[in-house]
Automatic annotation (TrEMBL):
Top enzyme category: translocase
Protein name, per record: Spermidine/putrescine import ATP-binding protein PotA
Origin: domain of life: Bacteria
Gene name linked to the record: potA
Record-annotated ABC transporter domain positions: 6-236
Organism, scientific name: Clostridium grantii DSM 8605
Family: Belongs to the ABC transporter superfamily. Spermidine/putrescine importer (TC 3.A.1.11.1) family.
EC number of this enzyme: 7.6.2.11
Subunit text: The complex is composed of two ATP-binding proteins (PotA), two transmembrane proteins (PotB and PotC) and a solute-binding protein (PotD).
Amino acid sequence: MSNEIINLKYICKEYNGESVIENLNLNIKKNEFITLLGPSGCGKTTTLRMIGGFEAPTSGEVYFEGKVINDLPAYKRHINTVFQKYALFPHMNVFDNIAFGLKIKKLSKDEITLKVNKMLDLVSLSNFGGRKIDSLSGGQQQRIAIARALVNEPKVLLLDEPLGALDLKLRKEMQVELKNMQQKLGITFIYVTHDQEEALTMSDTIVVMDKGYIQQVGTPVEIYNEPQNRFVANFIGDSNIIQGIMKKDFLVNFSEKDFKCVDKGFDENEEVDIVVRPEDIEISLNDNFMIKGEVKSIVFKGVHYEIMVEEHNFHWKIHSTKWIEVGNVVGINISPENIHIMKKSGV
């Protein structure tokens, strides 16, 4: 029996003759928290809407549990959606908002009460059933919107940037709560965001998109530590990306020197892009260094200083707990496992 619940095969989407999704293929597993991540206009929300039945693909097939559902209307899919604008009914109290879908299904009063109370408990709002919607905070309204979507027991929950309207502290709290909910319920969450930290915090799998194409699919650790191209490396976290030449397996040249690395499988003397994360660079104040440069700026970021060091016309971004005076010449050390080699890309 397949472990996949949704398969997108050769999905294309056009608006007025303009392509926004091109030959997209994606397999989504049961009980997975998967995030579609990318900048505005990359196609992530359009993809979500095609899964939910709010948009039809121009070509290609959407499969749900092995069956094509292109022509199945949204209300007949075992899929519910939480939007950024929660669309709660202001004339109904919290209980009736959550119960709305159950009443349409004509469940008994006792069953509705049982299911709604269970959802209120899940979203930590057990005593809020009688409250009016306009008396709730943004975070509480968001939880009610999630409870209303989950009470119908969908097999898949779609979340379209649902934390976008919340302040930073509440957004971070809700990231943890959403992941906990998904693990408790054991259903598939498909989440859309442009926020890299959100994606890295919550996801089992991240799908990085740009200009209608999937750039990379992987776990948060894979996406962060092993970006496949320049776009992914730039979009996920801070990166130093420098051009180099792969001399041979495990040996790369940049900054006019050869350095050991852990990558292989490239052609000899192939031009490559090299990515090094700022936190993976060590500053040396003695004669033990790989390369050296002049400190051009230093900014306090709370848990570290962000230091810009100029070397051979390249500005290295470094995260360090050391304070270094601007104008000082310092050494830079990078261990082989922190030098990541990427194929040259036009992205």
